[in-house]
């Protein structure tokens, strides 16, 4: 295990690498010279043989946690197919502002981009794309709750919208400036803690865990 800047390298092979992204770092390059520092650029600096676009999935800039990147075309294709087939298991930890009335559940909501308020997503039962998230209560921290979240789909801001929306848990993630009461610069308490996928060559299951960089009393 090593680190490049603030990017922690958890596992590496010639064809792929697993990293833990810090909150506040872009996953892929954005528009403009000031938005080129990201997971992809740091990985390509460390692995010069990597393809130009090694990312097979993304995390919001404010979200921390695990990402896998394909360094070769064949491995990238294999990993991308696993994500497209929804066979990759993604486990998130989050602290929400409030307490759910039950201990577990499934949230199914259709939502889309609000073009008048980018990058905000809005609930739209007719034109929106379906997002499905499974969740489980892990414990309480005062008036807040710690959740384990398993997104079945990978929509933009899915977990942030599912937790905050009245048809979801009606309890936004702590520190969320888009869907909650967080202010710009606050830490979003959402972390991609677990990632499980098949090795692109042997097809043996690989499991990775990254502890959250924020306080979670019940772990």
Summarize the structure.
With 219 residues, the chain is mostly beta strands.
Could you say what the CATH architecture of the largest domain is? 2-Layer Sandwich
| Proportion of beta-strand residues | 35-45%
Based on DSSP secondary structure assignment, what is the total number of beta strands?
Answer: 11
- List the quaternary state of the chains: single chain
Q: What percentage of residues falls in helices of 4 or more residues?
A: 10-25%
Given as residue ranges, the uncertain stretches (5+ residues, pLDDT < 50) are: none
According to CATH, what is the topology of the largest domain? Pseudouridine synthase
Helical segment count = 3
Describe this structure in words.
The radius of gyration is 17 Å and the shape is globular. Helix content is 12%, strand content 36%. A hairpin with a 6-residue loop joins β10 and β11 (205-209). Strands 1, 2, 3, 4, 5, 6, 7, 8, 9, 10 and 11 form an eleven-stranded mixed sheet that branches. By secondary structure, the protein is mainly beta. It folds into two domains: 2-85, Pseudouridine synthase; 87-195, 2-Layer Sandwich (Pseudouridine synthase), CATH 3.30.2350.10. The model has no long low-confidence stretch (mean pLDDT 92).
Structural features:
Pseudouridine synthase; 12% helix; mainly beta
């Amino acid at each position: 295990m090593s680190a490049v800047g603030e990017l922690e390298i958890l596992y590496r092979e010639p064809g792929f690498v697993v990293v833990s992204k810090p909150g506040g770092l872009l996953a892929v390059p954005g528009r403009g010279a000031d938005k080129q520092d990201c997971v992809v650029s740091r990985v390509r600096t460390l692995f010069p043989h990597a393809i130009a676009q090694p990312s097979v999935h993304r995390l919001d800039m404010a979200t921390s946690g695990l990402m896998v990147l394909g360094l070769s075309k064949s491995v990238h294709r294999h990993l991308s197919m696993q994500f497209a087939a929804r066979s990759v298991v993604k486990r998130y930890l989050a602290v929400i502002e409030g307490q759910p009335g039950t201990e577990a559940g499934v949230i199914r909501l259709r939502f889309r981009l609000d073009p008048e308020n980018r990058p905000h997503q809005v609930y739209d039962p007719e034109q929106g794309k379906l997002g499905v998230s499974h969740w489980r209560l892990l414990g309480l921290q005062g008036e807040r709750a710690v959740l384990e979240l398993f997104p079945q789909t990978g929509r933009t801001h899915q977990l942030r919208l599912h937790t905050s929306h009245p048809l979801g848990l009606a309890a936004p993630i702590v520190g969320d400036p888009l869907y909650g009461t967080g202010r710009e610069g606050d830490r979003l308490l959402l972390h991609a803690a677990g990632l499980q996928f098949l090795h692109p060559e042997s097809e043996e299951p690989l499991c990775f865990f990254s502890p959250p960089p924020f306080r979670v009393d019940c772990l």
